[in-house]
Amino acid sequence: MKSSILFAALSSIASVTAYPQYLETRQAWTPQEWIAPGDGDSRGPCPGLNTLANHGYLPRNGKGINLSKLADAMLAGFNIARSDAVILYSQAIRTSPNYPLASSFDLSDLGTHGILEHDISLSRSDAYFADPNPFNATVWAETASHFTTPMITVEQVAKARMGRLATSKATNPEHELSALADGFSWGECASFFEIMADGTTGTVNKTFIEYWFRNERMPTEIGWKRRSTTMPSSERLKYTRLLEEAAGVSGILRRDAYGRPLFH
Length: 264
Ligand code: HEM
Ligand SMILES: *[C@@H]1O[C@H](CO)[C@@H](O)[C@H](O)[C@H]1NC(C)=O
Ligand SMILES: *[C@@H]1O[C@H](CO)[C@@H](O)[C@H](O)[C@H]1NC(C)=O
Ligand SMILES: *[C@@H]1O[C@H](CO)[C@@H](O)[C@H](O)[C@H]1NC(C)=O
Prior knowledge:
binds 2-acetamido-2-deoxy-beta-D-glucopyranose; Chloroperoxidase; mainly alpha; binds protoporphyrin IX containing FE; peroxidase; single chain; about 260 residues; two-stranded antiparallel ribbon; 10 helices; metal-binding
């Protein structure tokens, strides 16, 4: 009797030691607590970084984000490789009022129109019409009109983005899309498939996207899981390419999804 209990105990220890990854995948990942931003907290036009601040992966006040804080947050919160944070940080820092002497940025800095903040956003107004920082339900309704199935596809996101471009051109007398913004905006679209899905399917659950954009919160309570593999920068470029192909604009772009010059 005793020895069989001992045997059972020993064999369960043995199986844990032999398959450490088994334990890890069985434990559901839960995010840090979500707290809505309060008065005085800095938030900007990026739903990804706003979400990381709302969960406390970035400073909850959204201020003083340096490279280590950004890279730690992107990895811990969304499982994005550090290399990705390094490239994006080099863009983000340009929006700081202290640039080129800055060593950190605040989330609201990202909203300065014409550096990174651009027209044709999926969920933000063009700056000509209204504040481009907060989620805008009117703009989002236009975007979401292209999401006609429960799983959003690359083709649908490409159409939504080209639709926003057409609307901006037709209605905004100050419409502008720099080469950087053109590439950068495709990178933003790519995050649907990489961060809200696991980067393997080219589709993403519409409910997760709606929940994320509207609440700037990880959709864990409705069944979303943080991707289990770390997203490499090559994947952002891959989805950017797929989106551009779906939109029929590949080969025209002068900047990549990180805003870096491309040479054709
Ligand atoms: C340092 C890292 C990052 C920087 C500097 C950055 C910057 C920005 C900026 C400036 C915008 C606004 C562009 C505009 O619409 O005018 C934006 C939008 C966006 N970002 Fe980020 N971002 C970063 C990381 C992330 C991450 C980790 C995610 C995904 C989890 C993400 C997802 C998005 C999406 C989906 C949009 C598009 C919003 C829209 O079009 O309505 N970003 N980002
Ligand atoms: C970022 O700031 C933290 C303290 O707030 C500091 O420990 C860390 O070294 C800084 N990282 C960089 C790259 O400056
Ligand atoms: C939302 O965006 C539309 C279109 O740009 C704009 O007319 C409207 O004023 C914005 N709404 C808010 C609340 O900012
Ligand atoms: C998407 O997620 C929602 C919320 O968990 C779920 O009810 C729905 O069945 C999912 N849709 C698909 C197509 O998997």
